[in-house]
Structures are given as C-alpha cells and as structure tokens.
Amino acid sequence: MTADAVRVPTRAEVPASDTWDLTTLFETDATWEAAFVVWQGEVDRFAQCRGRLGESPAVLLEFLRFETDFERQGDRLGTFAFLKETEDLANSAYQGMKARYLGIAARAGEASSFSRPELLALPPDALARTLADPALAEYKLLLERVVRYRPYTLSDKEERLLALQLESAQTAREVFGQLTNADMKFGTIVFEGRTLELSHATYASCLEKPDRELRKAAFHTYYAEFADHANTLATTLSGSVKQDVYNAKVRNYGSAREAALFPDQVPLGVYDNLIAAVRANLPAVHKYYGIRQRAMNLPELHFYDTYVPILTEFRKVTPWDDAVELVLESLRPLGEEYTETLAAGLRGRWCDRYENKGKRSGAFSSGCYDSDPFILMNYKPDVLDDVFTLTHEAGHSLHTHSSKRQPYQYANYTIFVAEVASTFNEQLLAKTLMERATSDRERAYYLNKEIDGMRATIVRQTMFAEFEKIIHEQAEANEPLTLESLRQTYRSLLETYLGPGMTLDDEQSLECLRIPHFYGAFYVYKYATGLAAAIALSQKVLNGGPADLAAYLNFLRSGSSQDPLDLLRDAGVDLATPEPVDAALKHFGKLVDELDGLLA
Ligand SMILES: [Zn+2]
C-alpha cells in the first residue's frame, strides 16, 4: 500500500476514541469563552501591587499568590487553545482563540514586569529578611532564582539602553534565517526518474537513502549553494558570536559561555567534562565508522555514507494497540504505578493518535497543571520510529504528570532535564526490541539504530559544543572570525571526531555555516548531557536495586524544585564528574563491539 493510496480523513471523520479528550479542560468552546473573559478582567489587578513589593512580606505574598493563580488559569486557557489549533491548522476559529490568549498573556507580561526590577532593587539586608520570612517559604526558591541575577543586573538607565537594542541585536540571526530558509535555492537532483527539488528536509532524507549516487549528488548540490554564500554566512555567524560576547561583557559575566550556562546554574566544568569524556571515547566512534565502511563494502567512507541504515529496514507492522503493549512491556522495570498510569492514559484519551487533514505534523507532549499530559502523534503502524516516538512522548508526559506532586510554581521542569525522561524510555524500548529480535540481522538493525542515535546526539552535538566554545573564546581574545578561520577550526574538529578512516570532502567544513543552533549558542550541549544522563540512569535502574529505581522515580516527581544538576545528582548521575558521559560512551563501545560480531 503506498502512502497516497490511503485517503487522509478530515477531523470530523476521526472516531472520538482515537483523539485526545480536551473536554477535561473545558467542556465546550463556550465555557472556554466564559473563563477567558473572567481571566482577561484580572490583568489590571497587577497594578495594585506596583511599587509596593518591598513594603512587607505580606504584600509580596499577596502578589505572588495572585500571579501564580493568574498564570495557572492562563495555562489552562492557553493549553486548550493551542491543542485545539493543532487538530486542524486550517480551522481559523482556534487560531483566533490562540491569538486572543497570546494577546492577554503579553499584556499580563507587561503589567507584571515591574516585579523583577523591584525585587532586585531591594537593599541586601531587607531582601535577606524577606527571603527568611516563613510566610514566603513556598516561594523562597522562586525568589532566589530572581535575585541571583543581581550581580548581572545594571542600573535602570543601562538596562533601558540594553532593552532598546534587543531587537536590532537579533539581526545576524535573522539574516541567517532569511538567507537559508527563503533566499537560498538548492537546485534539483534526479531521484527514481523524478526531478526532486532540494531543500533542508529533502537533503536530510536523501542522506538516509540506500542509493549512494543520490546521496553523493544531494551532498554536493546542497553544499554548492552554501559555498556560493559562504562569505555572508561567515559574517552573520561572526556577528552573532560578537553579540554573545558583548552581552556577557556588559553584564559582567566572565565569558559568553558562563552567561549562557548561568540560568541552569551549570558550572563550566560540566561543559568541559562532556568534551573531555567524548574525546576520550572517540576510538570507539572511529571503530564504528570502520565497521560501517566494511559492512557497506565501500572503498571510501564519506560523510554522506553515515546516515543510511547499514541494513535495510525490516518491514514490521505495529498497530497502535500493539505499540502501546510493547511500550508498556519495555517500561516494566519502572514499576507498576508508572506503567498503570501510562496504560490508563494511552488506552484512554491522552493521545491524539493518527493523522487527519490539516493536523499538525510530527509529535509532542503538552499539557498543564490542571490537565492530562496530552500527546499529539501522527502514528503510522508501518514506521518503527513511531513506536520510539510514542515512548519518547510518553516519557515527557509521565514526567509532567508526576511533577504535579510539586506546587504549581515548581512543577515545570527545565529543558536541561526534559530530555532525560523521554530518552530514558527510548533506551528501554531499544533493549526490549533487541531481546525479542528473532534473527541476528534484526538484532543488528536495532543495534545500528541505537548506535547512530547516540552518535548523532552525544558525539556530534559535543563536536558542535566544542566549536561554539572555541569560536567564542577566539572572539573574546579579539581574534578575527573569518570564513577561513571558521572553516579551519571546524575542519580540524571534523578530523578529530570523524577519525582517520573518514574521507573528508572539502565542502564538509561549510557545515559550520548552516547550523541554526549556533545562533542560540551553548544550547546543544544539553542534548548530549541529557542523553548521556538518560543512558547512565537507565543502566542504573536496569542493573541496580530498589534504591536506584526509587531515586529515578523521585526525579520524575521533582519538577523544578531544585536546580537541574542537583535533581540529576539525587537521581543518581553527577554531571559535575566525567563519569556519566564516560559510562554512556562505554555502553556505546559495547554496542559497537556487538554489532561488529553480528556483522562479521
Ligand atoms: Zn523530547
């Protein structure tokens, strides 16, 4: 059955049992409207506390309680509008609903914006007394998280100047976005007799195709366009780096990297440990490339040979109900409470399961303090990756659900820990599939998938992280960032991370000019630490005792009640040491050895 032989249903044709049940949030659109009008009317109440937060702990408490209630109700309204819109993006009624929600949320943001500067302006002794007041105990950490920015906050006049240039400071990033998404045209290549227009998405999918000539053509055609714009792209990247350096300098941070790591309270050592641990384990990565080259029977291994599965995919059909059973079975090590909660949600109405006309593509987990942790999927029974996506999103959903044990203000977890719960579940699914494989070939297929996932998330993102570190340090040392210097830095990292067995095409170093994440620097390392922590924790839960499991489940219930590194340390991984990343990569090495044996 080909994709276009299946007619995609309209939203109205989808049986209710296959959809999420948003009536648990608001019974009807009319009840949403009524609640929205009340909420909207509350915005003006923020003004009553303006200029008064330092008056007494009682006034501050009144403000914080009001703000918490206001945000909590806003989350309910926003979640409903946002999820409704994704059901059918062509339905303008819900676009309007979302726009109205966002309008009031923005107004509320402005109306309450006095609170931060007012708190930061309190004299240190008055602030210390306020924070120690037992009446404010439930908000103490929240307040500390505001006032910890004090050393990096400038005078009112200086803050105003910085605020006025916020928009123009985005120019480098915006030029990059417009150039690479709108203006650059990547040309065409021929695939299966058809002429295919190359884009970022089609380039990525071409790299996964078994046809080597296609991969090679896609690679060279794609990068030819980057070569044509290399000078402009080097200038925007250098401009973005200089802006990062400027922002950090004017706010008295030690470096741009220090400024970026500050919100998560992550010391530079964590970042450096990650790079050191990955570098120490690169021989296993290089060995894997050698295995890949032999198994694919290639005279030379190029970058465009590294994304296609070594073995052709197994045609495996997993209907929804079977996928749910498989996911639940794989998660049994997490105990009954976890699997029963998830079973009720997935067999019930947490998940909007299948594609319909106009539905948002991809998958996500989303919800709020007063809703179920809903999941959007476009589940296809013949796509194995979709089973992984399901357990990934289920991991987010159980994390969200469990964190409701915290009071509202500490229930939302940060990005730094978010991908731990999701990729932990993927680890368990991979293990179950490998155990159940009925042939060496099938097992090798899963191993290869697992290895490539770790390589892309831990090794490659760490190489990006090291590149960001080097070019920011160069800018901080007033060394010019030129097209030549950027390419040279990147090429030397490629040589190190890809190893001597890889044949590097000259264009490969242009890759450093096309990564959107470099315009929000020092973010990608979190992908690597997140997966490394998830692997280390899953190994602990699988091989350890009840205390290891209890620590992990407690982590899922913790929301943001501590800073990320403290939460993870209590869960059983200390990212201040190289050990978790090292353990994850030792696991990688074992998988590589096993794959080698199976393919030999
Ligand atoms: Zn995720």
Outline the secondary-structure elements.
Elements: H1 29-42, H2 57-87, H3 92-111, H4 115-121, H5 124-132, H6 140-147, H7 156-164, H8 171-183, E1 188-191, E2 194-197, H9 200-206, H10 212-228, H11 230-250, H12 256-261, H13 268-280, H14 282-296, H15 320-330, H16 336-347, E3 351-352, E4 364-366, E5 374-376, H17 384-402, H18 415-436, H19 440-476, H20 483-498, H21 525-543, H22 546-556, H23 564-571, H24 579-599
Parallel strand pairs: 3-5
Antiparallel strand pairs: 1-2, 4-5
Bound molecules: zinc ion (ZN).
Structure report:
- A hairpin with a 7-residue loop joins strand 4 and strand 5.
- The protein is built from 24 helices and five strands.
- The strands form two sheets. A three-stranded mixed sheet has the order 3-5-4, covered by helices on one side.
- With 600 residues, the protein is mostly helical.
- Helix 19 runs antiparallel to helix 24.
- Among the domains are: 142 residues, Up-down Bundle (Butyryl-CoA Dehydrogenase, subunit A, domain 3); 44 residues, putative peptidase helix hairpin domain like (Helix Hairpins).
- The protein starts with 28 loop residues before the first helix and ends with a helix.
- The protein is globular and about 75 Å long.
- It binds zinc ion.
- Zinc ion binds next to helix 17 and helix 18.
